[in-house]
Every structure is written in structure tokens, then in C-alpha cells.
Amino acid sequence: MNLPRQRYEETFVLNLGPQHPATHGVLRIKVTMDGEYVIKAEPVLGYIHRMHEKIAEQGNFAQFMPYTARMDYLHALAFNHGYCLVVERAAGIEVPERAEYIRVITVELNRIASHLLWWAAFLLDLGGFTPLLYAFDDREQILDLLERTTGSRLTYCYFRFGGVCNDIDDEFISGTRTFIDRLRKRLPVMYHSLVTGNIILIKRIKDIGIISTEQCRRYGASGPVARGSGIDFDVRKHEPYSIYPELDFDIPVYNEGDSMARYMVRMDEIEQSLRIIEQALDKLPDGPIMAKVPKNLRPEAGTCYAAVETARGSLGHRLLCNGDRNPYRLKLRSPTFSNLSLFAEVAEGMMIADVLAFLGSLDLVIPEIDR
Amino acid sequence: MANPIVHALVYLIGLMTFAGLNAAYLVWCERKGAARIQRRTGPCEVGWAGLLQPLADGLKLMTKQLLVPDGVDAALFRLAPVLAMLPGMVALAVIPFSAHLQALDMELSALFIFAFASLAMLCVLLGGWASGNKFAIISSARAVSQNLAYEIPMLLTLITIALISGSLNLREIALDQQGGLFHWNLFRLEGWHILTMWIAFIIFFICSIAETNRAPFDLAEAESELVAGYMTEYSSMGYGLFMMAEYINIVVGACLTTILFLGGWGCPFDVAPGWWWFGLKMYALIFTIIWVRWTYPRTQIYRLLNLSWKVMIPFSLINLLITAGLVKFL
Fold this sequence. Notes:
The complex is a heterodimer.
Chain A: E1 12-16, E2 28-34, E3 37-44, H1 52-58, H2 65-69, H3 76-91, H4 97-125, H5 130-150, E4 159-160, E5 163-164, H6 170-196, H7 199-205, H8 213-219, H9 224-227, H10 235-238, H11 259-283, E6 302-310, E7 313-321, E8 329-333, H12 335-341, H13 343-347, H14 352-361, H15 366-369
Antiparallel strand pairs in A: 1-2, 2-3, 4-5, 6-7, 7-8
Helix pairs in contact in A: 3-4, 4-5, 4-11, 4-14, 5-6, 6-11
Chain B: H1 4-37, H2 53-63, H3 74-93, H4 109-131, H5 134-165, H6 170-176, H7 194-211, H8 223-226, H9 236-261, H10 274-293, H11 301-329
Helix pairs in contact in B: 1-2, 1-9, 2-9, 3-4, 3-9, 4-5, 5-7, 5-11, 7-9, 7-11, 9-10
């Protein structure tokens, strides 16, 4: 978009956040504005920094497990999964097949819940209140299902090194199947007819906040943000882990790079996740849910890396062990940090309302950026 | 009523009660309506079905402290919400609710309402400016450009109606539409006005939503962008008065639409008194406004202005020309 004037004599700085309705959580954006045009946007971080990586070094391996859920609280199981994966690789633990299936089923359910919540919050950013309640209605079903199995509703600590801590029961399976049918029925009606096709919504997010493929690569964007800009990359497909290679699902990719593309990627991903869950439920084998794992893990000295796909992009854990009972160093590569980095460049020259719509389309979870 | 002072007093008290109760209970209706749309129950604790909720809300607002932040223009800051109530109240005085229920019959009453509606925008500007808050100032700048843009197509539509009815007196415009459904301006068979009036009606209705700062045109108080817009710094009844003003303006807008297009107190079937029909039409319009708010997301300010300057104004101009032609040649 063209800027109205070239000489900015009457600019002012507006602080969006850390307490602002559109910067969910505690993100602060220092915006330099000329009228309603944003000349410069500068995200300021650090309001919820809790030194998670340092905490990981303090206790033994298992003690860090609950903290993983406190980072991306919307897709907590993926963070569980990522940390388990890297420790299992370091310690050479084989996970029983049933546990792998349960992991995938719960992670995908959690992914749907995360996308539904993003959808609700995004519409709220755009000024539509009602979709929030509809999405929360569906999300509630997922939370009830996960609560049955994991014991908690938001910050799960369900995975263990070598498996999961609770087996799923018949009620969970039948409940999940009912939920799949329910969401499949509701997606075209409540989500696409009411909201996606709405002319105001289309005008608000189509061609707004265009991220080029080159920008995505430069900033290391991943997840729906990258897939909305034509980058066909999903860790589940391209660096497979767990049982994903055995399942049949597609990676939705859109080339437009605008907010609408990111919106559509997430909506399509909900459908793909439903497919994954359905297949995993059909194939679910019997057997143990935990491998035999020593009480005190002492992985051999060396480094190990594992990546998983969260709802927001690829999450990497690099673990450095020195043969002790605690990690020597644990480094996280969290997806939204990179996704937020490109915000400042893209937001330049946009109008404030569009900037906030664009910010919403990035699906930021601040505690995951500020660890 | 022979005595003009008694007449004035009765109507004054009546109108203020009407405006106050409407503002209070429209909030209740809005909350209940929104709750229905969103599959919730809405207020249900205070009184039967939450009917005493508006009183409780009012009481709460009144007992709160009116915080005047440092660095604001204290006099203007206090004055703005009071002034905001004024235009809607005054406009109600000239609205004919039925053939005999009107406080003041004026020759140019339609124009009178528009003059005061512009004043409402001034109060928003005043409040935003006096707050000395950046969000509030952006919001008032938006409110002004929005109101300017939407008053033009609204007035053009009013002229169209004036051409048909031959008057700017709301009472006469309404009287002109008596005699059944097909005499209402919206469905007027006489002179083939039915062909163009629905366009005028849509334009007018959209404009009245935009004029009253309601979603999807509530750019001035876009809470995801501007926190609460011009009301950001207001607390207590300062905020309460702004809210009341908003609802009174909605009532005025719906009254005006009813009179200009839906035949005022005219009834399609002769079954109930006129004021009853007036209320029915008015509240149906208000319900539509509430319904729209809880269904659609918000638009952007530049699209809003584009819609007015590039779509509404040309269409209302063309409509005016066609209507003038129909009046002249048929």
C-alpha cells in the first residue's frame, strides 16, 4: 500500500499493549503512526519471560515435562510431544505402537482445539463476537474428551518418556467419533457459510498483510504462515516422526500469502486433522502404553535434535547432554517467534485496522515467544 | 390540553421517561438478543429474566467514581457526555408517534432532526479531544469523517421523500402515506415509486446504522483496535451517558426510518391503534440493527468511506433524479 505522504512531520507513537484487546496476552507493539497509517511497527517482548530453558537445566529430565505445556498453552500436547521426542532420541527409548497412536490422536485433537480458538479470537479481532461462542462450543467437546484421558483441560502433562500415562477407553473413542461427525457437519454450515463467505470478512482479510515466499524463508516462518505463502513444508510430512508416515493426509498450501490464505490453511487443516484422527482410531492397535524406562534417565553425552509440527509451525528442541541426570542445555526453536519477526516488515505502510487483522492472522501465542 | 405550559411539561416528562427507559431496556434487549444468537442465556439473575439488570447497571455506574485523568480538559471532558444525550432527546420532540401523539409539530421537523444529528457527532469529537488520549483522538477523527460521509446520502434520500410527499414536515410525510400497505413510501404504487424506493430504503437504513456508530460500522469504538474509542477515558456515568446517547440515537434513527418509509403509524390492517403499529415497526427495525451487530464482523474505515462516497452517494443521486422524473412526468 502506498503511504500518503513522504515526509512524516506529524507522527505519533502509539503503544498497542501490553494491555490491549488485540494483542492477546502481553505483546506490546510500538507503532509510529501518521494518521491511521503505520509507518513503523516494533514488537517489544519480554513481559512474560520465565526462563524456561534455564529451568530445564535445573531439574532432571522428567521434572521439565509440566513446563512444556506452559509455553504454547493452546497446543500443549505438541510441546509435550516435542520434548518427549528429543529425550527419547537421546536416551534411545522405543515407544510402544499403541502409545504412538494415542499420542497422534490427542495431539491432533488438541490441534483442532487450537485452530478453533484461533478462529474465534481472530473473528473477535475483526469485530465479530458471535463466532467465538460457536467455536468454543466445539472446542468444549474436545476439552471434555481430553480431560477424560489426560486429567487436565489446558496445560496437559500427559506424555511420558516412552509412552503416555493413561490409556484411552471406549468412551473416549466413541466420543471422538461422535465429535468428528459433529464437526464435519458444522464446518460447512457454522464456519464457512456464516463466516468464510461473508463479504465483510473477505474484504477485511483478502489481499491484506501479504507475506512473500522470500520473506517467509528469510525470517524462517513455518506452519500455516509459511503454507499460506506457498511453502509446502510440514514437519509431519517432510521430516516424519511418530506414526505420521502410516497415515494418509494432505498438507493444505495456498499461494496468495495474504491473511485469507492463512485463514484457509488453518480451516483446511482442521479437516485434515479430522482425517488423521479417524484413521488413527481405525488402526489403533492393542498393547502396552508405556515402554520400560529407567527411573533416572542418564542419556549419553552428546546432542540430539527433534522437530514436531505444532498448530503454529515447526517446533524444534535441541538437547545437549553430558551424561548427567539433567539436561546440560535445552534450546527451543519455537514457531511463533519467527512468525512474529516478519510482522514489523510487513506491517509497514498498512492502516492500523489492517495491521491488527494481520497480527491476528499470524496466530501468536505470546508465552511461547517469551519463554 | 389548553395550557401550553402543562402541555410542554407533560410531553417533556413523557419523552424523557421514554428515552431513558428505552435506553435502559434496549441494553437489556440487546444483551438478551445477543445471548439468543450466541446460544447463551444472557442476564437472568437480577429480577425475572434479568429485567432489573438495567437498574442494577445504572446504580452501579452511578456509584462509581468519575475519574478525570491528569492533563485532560476537565470542563469539556465533563460536558461532552451530557451534551451527547441532548440531540437525541431534542429530536424525539418532533417525532409524531401517532396522529395525535407528538410533542411539537414543526414545519421543517425532518431537517430539524438532521441538524441535531450532526450535533451528536460534535459531542463525540468533544469527548475524544478532551480526553487527550491517542485512541480517543483517532476514534473521534473517524467518527467525524464517518458522519460527514453518511449524512450526505441520508439527506439526499430525505430530499427524495420530500419530493414525493411535498413536505419536510414528518407529520405530513406520515399522513401522506396513510391508507394501507401500498401507500407506504417503501411500497408506494402511486407514481411507480415502488420501483426505486427500496434502494432508497436500503441506503437510508445503512446510513442510519453508520450514523449511530453501530456494528458493522462501529469504527469509532472498534474495541479490537481503539480499545473503547472516544469512551476510553470515561468511567462512571460519563460512560453511561455516552451509552444512553447511543441507544437514544438508535431509537431516533428507527423512528425516522419508520416515518419516512414504513408509513409512520399507518397500519396495513385496521386492527390496532396507530401508536401500536409505530412501535412495532420501530422495534422491528431496532431488532434488525441488533441482529446485524451480532452477526457481522466490523469493516475498515477506508472501505466505509469508499462505500459512502463511491456507492451510496451516486446511487442516492440517481435515485433522486429518477424520483424527480417520476414525480414530474407521471
